[in-house]
Amino acid sequence: MTDFASISPAGESDADPAFVFGFGFVKNEATELTWDNANASLSSYDWVWLHLNAHSDEARKWVREQSDIPYAAANALLAGETRPRVTSFDKGLVVNLRGVNLNEGAEPEDMVSIRIWVGGKRVITTRRRRLKAAQDIRQEILSGIKISGPGALTAKLAARLTDRAEPYVQEIEDEIDAIETAILKGDSQGARPKLADTRQAAVLFRRFVAPQRDALTRLAGSETDLFTAKTKIDLREVADRVTRMTEEIDTARERAMVLQDQLTDQRAEEMNRNMMILSVVAAIFLPLGFLTGLFGINVGGMPGVDSPMAFWLVVVGCIAIGAALALFFKSKRWL
Question: Is the pTM of this model over 0.90?
Fold first, then answer.
């Protein structure tokens, strides 16, 4: 069996135990469980919640040995990669949800999964990486919060995942705002790589938040007796919040595309302006180059060869021609 002395107060350990934490509920009052009494005392509680580490061979074996969990449901609980979804079985539901990765050193868009089996008297959740949303609920239960049943716990998990994800969506929007402000001020230096990173984060996040919206909407509309009317209302509220997040991410992506086009237009405009200036400068010096080339030929008959003022007359003529051309181009708004 697992050494429960090695489990930290946060429900984690360096040894990655099979059992992370668990609670038994009687009349909405919770009692913290251990791995040893999780099964033995099942009849002593109205329902229980067990949170397991899917990396552990012991946890995987235990899940597959549970007679009330169908084979397909056990596979879903232990799957390595999964997308948000809801699957109904005769004895319960499998709900796969995802949240932002808030573990130290991880990228938020590298989503963390929680797999949930919701039965009549048992909720079994599995994870492969630490999930702060589950730890939040654990701390709330330890502080005295009451949870009315398996359906209410599922709704609370979905709500907590959404609570953790909303600030990340706001960060993406704030980053888009900052880039847009910089571009409008003409300070687009370094904006292109920042915009690319922000767009990538939004794309990766949407890949999971959109299926989660569909899964929660389906869960809220399910006909199962595991969820009370209040729980379904709570789930619909969470689904609405996830829908709003999806719309905000879509808006951020569209704004990022517009800003990308604006940056491209600015770059093209700058290049056109530079090419115009170079063309005008070349046009100004073209007749001057012709004159200096003409007067530089070594043949007889050149006017002013014997005059000491000829050089200065040519210089003044070149300056006059250059000034006249500059004024002409300016009047045409080419300069």
Answer: no
